[in-house]
Amino acid sequence: xxxxxxxxxxxxxxxxxxxxxxxxxxxxxxxxxxxxxxxxxxxxxxxxxxxxxxxxxxxxxxxxxxxxxxxxxxxxxxxxxxxxxxxxxxxxxxxxxxxxxxxxxxxxxxxxxxxxxxxxxxxxxxxxxxxxxxxxxxxxxxxxxxxxxxxxxxxxxxxxxxxxxxxxxxxxxxxxxxxxxxxxxxxxxxxxxxxxxxxxxxxxxxxxxxxxxxxxxxxxxxxxxxxxxxxxxxxxxxxxxxxxxxxxxxxxxxxxxxxxxxxxxxxxxxxxxxxxxxxxxxxxxxxxxxxxxxxxxxxxxx
Length: 302
What we know:
With 302 residues, this protein is α/β, with parallel strands linked by helices. The chain folds into 3 domains: 8-106 and 202-224, D-Maltodextrin-Binding Protein, domain 2 (3-Layer(aba) Sandwich); 110-190, Periplasmic binding protein-like II (D-Maltodextrin-Binding Protein, domain 2), CATH 3.40.190; 240-299, Porphobilinogen deaminase, C-terminal domain (Double Stranded RNA Binding Domain, 2-Layer Sandwich), CATH 3.30.160.40. Helices cover 31% and strands 25% of the residues. It contains 9 helices and 13 strands. The strands form 3 sheets. It has a 5-stranded mixed sheet with strand order 2-1-3-10-4, with helices on both faces. It has a 5-stranded mixed sheet with strand order 7-6-8-5-9, sandwiched between helices. A 3-stranded antiparallel sheet has the order 11-12-13. Helix 1 links the parallel strand 1 (8-12) and strand 2. Helix 8 runs parallel beside helix 9. The longest helix is centred in the first third of the chain and has 18 residues, at 16-33. The radius of gyration is 19 Å and the shape is globular.
């Protein structure tokens, strides 16, 4: 289907952050297509992860709890583009769909929000730190086993609300989401990668489309941020080799320097009861092999 479209329909989750991300995609498309604004429309789609907020992610059925319903709408032809936070997406996609493009990555690091200390290591014993991520739970306790890690669900605003009302003494969130929402007026401290290695592809927005949409896919590819695509796919190959999903305790961060790419990765080994971390550098042309090889190297240490 190579026909140039007269309108584009974007599908997004309904949270404030998700709609801001969809708006960012719409703005990019409008700028590059030189269209009037009403030719691109954003539709809100409620996913399983949005509907069930009283259970941990790991208890929900299957992978992709924040993207399956959006993907169904693409396949049904009701929307043209699904906008996702890439870290929420499983490695395997439905057969008919394509990961067509990537926006420039936001800050990939995690952030501590707390008035009790500026680093995980300096937090006093017994205080409650809220997070829904098993990865963050393992990393926080590895850095400071004296704190109490509490499971909290909800969007960014509701999690900050739980901290403001004293339900928890601190929370750990992705810097990318806070930055996109313009939340700067709270005590927030970037956590170094030595303490909290971020989730694979954290901070990356991806655009998912139907494979048959040749013109749309070609256009999106032309405006996609190539370095972000390389970084994100390297990290996701690392994750996939570990047979993980976004709910498992895996961290990865790829950095491009010149013609080389360096990947730092870690996962929590249940066999050894500890985080295993490694780093490997390769030419950019070998970035997919890099993700697999680092994962295999860490698995060999179990």
